[in-house]
Amino acid sequence: MDFRFSNEEDAFRTEVQEFLKAELTPGWDDQFDTETELGAMEQGDFAKQFQMKLAERHWLALPWPEEYGGLGANVMQQVIYNEEMAYKGAPTGFNMGVAWVGPSLMIYGTPEQKEEFLPKITNLEHTWCTLYSEPESGSDLASLQTRAVKDGDEWVINGQKIWTSGAHRSNWGWLAARTDPEAPKHKGISMFLVPMDAPGLSMQPLVNMAGEHGFNEVFFEDVRIPANYLVGQENQGWYQLAVALDFERSSIAGSARARRWWEKLIGFSNEHPQFVSANPKVRHRLAEIGIEVDIGKYLSYRVASLQQAGQIPNYEATIAKLFSSELGQRLARTGMDLLGIYGQLHPKSKYAYLNGGIERYYQMSVSETIAGGTSEIMRGVVAIRGLGLPKG
Ligand SMILES: Cc1cc2nc3c(=O)[nH]c(=O)nc-3n(C[C@H](O)[C@H](O)[C@H](O)COP(=O)(O)OP(=O)(O)OC[C@H]3O[C@@H](n4cnc5c(N)ncnc54)[C@H](O)[C@@H]3O)c2cc1C
In the annotation, is 212 catalytic? Predict the structure, then answer.
């Protein structure tokens, strides 16, 4: 791989850094981290205004063609943008519309679907959630049972989804449903666009171990959507979905966020040496994590570099995801050990150090090795596709 950035890419990084310097006051994220629901709520209005500014600059969907609200940027520019935004903890929001619904529509959508949906993703009118997982289908997603049955010029949907992140804040859903129950499991799935206010669709909040409402159960009872909300070819959804899972796979945000937290812990250790003296092994772990933060970055650059060269990253992206999610957990554990009993204090406690961020990070990082595919599944992919080992 080539580690150098082009002059154009370096100039873009400077532009993003200057934008962030102008828009985010120093230490602005110290109170609540934007990656937590609590942070997102506390910073609600500010985050909305910030995202509008990103939309005006056409930065929300950088690589998209200009006609759809993007800038036609290359992969490296997208990685630079993601890295800088995550490093500063900027409230970019996570709009799955930008990440995979839009890119999938560009490949598989009809001209009418592109015209109707793409501009509304980039102007923030539509916020999307992803309706894949079910109570009995997670790692083995192809076994999903939610049914879509054609009835005249409509599809009728019945079933249940689970772990749907942000469904309560989304007005559209990107749904995988079974359209041919007789076919082999990978060959009977189709993709749909679903308005989240459709009659018959309801949801229940799921509160995670950190006490935050980030995801939901979503129920479909005879939900009717127009026939033209099917995306791509009927029963070919699994293959479209596999392509959608390939978008945005560099995982640079995970290692950039780890760098921010690692720097915070180093700063804290220097200001409060008594915490390090009380637990000397933390010094070595902080040193080790400093090395790992760089490794995480380069693993992500490798993925982007392959994409830039027109290749499709496979196990390389899996390695980056596996490494950065486990790095987040190692870092959070180290922060917890450094702070000792103070590490357990919630951001709302006046006695909390680092504004309680480590307590949030520790609890939230548990899900990182589950979301988007578990570490066991990731290791399986590396073993089979990367090392050529036989299937277990
Ligand atoms: C924070 C978060 C956000 C999420 N957001 C969404 C979302 O927006 N939309 C959505 O559709 N889903 C979402 N998910 C769901 C996520 O994709 C699934 O949780 C994940 O794919 C694992 O599936 P599961 O929970 O059913 O676990 P299971 O697949 O039941 O796995 C249980 C355990 O068995 C292990 N296991 C399973 N199969 C194998 C195997 N073949 N080899 C070895 N070990 C195996 C797993 O590693 C795991 O430890 C989210 C999850 C989290 C944690």
Answer: no
Instruction: Say what the pLDDT of residue 42 is.
Output: 59
- Considering the four listed CATH numbers 1.10.530.10, 3.20.20.60, 1.10.540.10, 1.10.10.60, the one that applies to the domain covering 7-93 is 1.10.540.10
- 329 versus 310: which is more confidently predicted? 329
User: Which of 353, 338, 342, 331 lies closest to 257, judged by CA?
Assistant: 331
Q: Please state which CATH class domain 128-236 belongs to.
A: mainly beta
pTM of the model: 0.94
Arithmetic mean of pLDDT, 354-378: 93
Report the relative pairing of strands 172-178 and 128-131 from DSSP bridges: parallel
**Triad 250, 254, 255: Cα angle to 5°:** 90
Domain 249-386 indexed as CATH 1.20.140.10 = yes
- Which residues form the pocket of ligand 1, taking CB atoms under 6 Å from any ligand atom? 129-133, 138-139, 163-165, 215, 367, 370-371, 373-374, 376-377, 380
